Structures are given as C-alpha cells and as structure tokens.
Amino acid sequence: MSVTVEGLIERDARYYRSTGDRALVVVQVHAAFGHPFEAAVDFGPSANDHAFAERTARTIRKGMVARIDANSITHRADHGNAVYVLGGGDLAVVVHGDVGPLVDITQLAQMRR
User: Fold this and answer.
1) pLDDT at residue 23, as a whole number
2) When you count CB atoms within 10 A of the terminal residue's CB, does the N or C end of the chain come out lower?
3) C-alpha neighbours within 13 Å on the C-beta side of residue 57
4) Superfamily, domain 3-111
C-alpha cells in the first residue's frame, strides 16, 4: 500500500530521543480532511545525529507545506489527541518553500548514515 499526504504543517517539527536512543524528527501535517497525519524520520543513534536532528527540527515551522509518502498507516489516539501515523520502509518527507521543494528531511537523515 502506498499513501501520499500533502498539506500544511500543523505545528513546528519536534525532535525526540526514542526509547532506543535514536534521534527522531516528527512532522505533523493537516490535510484537507479528518485527523492530522504524522511521520517520524530517524536520523540515527550518535550524538552528532541527535544534534543534526535537533537543528533540522528547528527549521521546519508551522504553516509550511509538506508532502509525506509512506507505505503504512496506523491510527493513534492518546490524551484526547488522534493522528494517523505514516511509516514504512520507504518513508519520504519533503518540506516545500515558496518556489518548490525546500528540504527532503528523509534524504538528510540518510546522508548522515
């Protein structure tokens, strides 16, 4: 299955340290309908990966346009918030600027490995 969602970023991207000590950048997009869609890009486990992921997350702001391509979709509801979580082996998250693609954060993460 292939899922593509494009829309406005609902809130600033967030940097997280996962339970496996991986650096994650989480982007949440609000499409034209229903709950928001969320994708987490894994930057890796090293201290440099964490620093790079944190810097990358600070550049992705609410209101920018993002496109997420994924292979899987699940639904998560916690503490009154519900989102569709996009993932899979071929996850791609591209943030657009005024004149076209600004940054493919998935490629950034892969280049760090």
Assistant:
1) 95
2) N
3) 24
4) Nucleic acid-binding proteins (2.40.50.140)
